[in-house]
Amino acid sequence: MKSSDIDQELFTESYCKVCSAQLISESQRVAHYESRKHASKVRLYYMLHPIDGGCPAKKLRSENGSDDDSVDKNKCCTLCNMSFTSAVVAESHYQGKIHAKRLKLLLGEQPTLKATGLKRSYTCNICNVTLNSIEQYHAHLKGSKHQTNLKNQ
């Protein structure tokens, strides 16, 4: 499989598989694909998933030189697609909200209503989207993208 074929699978007009981002409009798509956060995640993705199918560069293995396929958790979180500069930074990430949220999504927990002050949001874990109102949430549940994701689950 050529690099361009892989890129077409990863980066479509409406979805970025590397970032798990749904792209609704042209301006959102352009902004996302040109962002630093996207570029960082793409670099990490290609480091962990080399195009030629060979060993990833530096494979982020633990310093003890083990040959198993495990990734050093002090250098990288494959769940969140993040790399770390030190064990302290890694530990901070693993105790943080972003990692906890992704872990909940991975475990398939139901959509939650979270109240933060006066703001409320509704999350669909199937599509990995957060909506601002109950009306948007219900409209999302009836939408074609959600129905497709529900069938593919």
Automatic annotation (TrEMBL):
The keyword Glycoprotein does not apply. One of its GO terms (molecular function) is nucleic acid binding. Its main location: nucleus. One of its GO terms (cellular component) is nucleus. Keywords: Metal-binding, Nucleus, Repeat, Zinc, Zinc-finger. It is found in: Nucleus. Transmembrane segments: none annotated. Coiled coil: none annotated. Pfam families: zf-met. PANTHER family: ZINC FINGER MATRIN-TYPE PROTEIN 4 (PTHR46144:SF3), ZINC FINGER PROTEIN 385B-LIKE (PTHR46144). This is Zinc finger matrin-type 4.
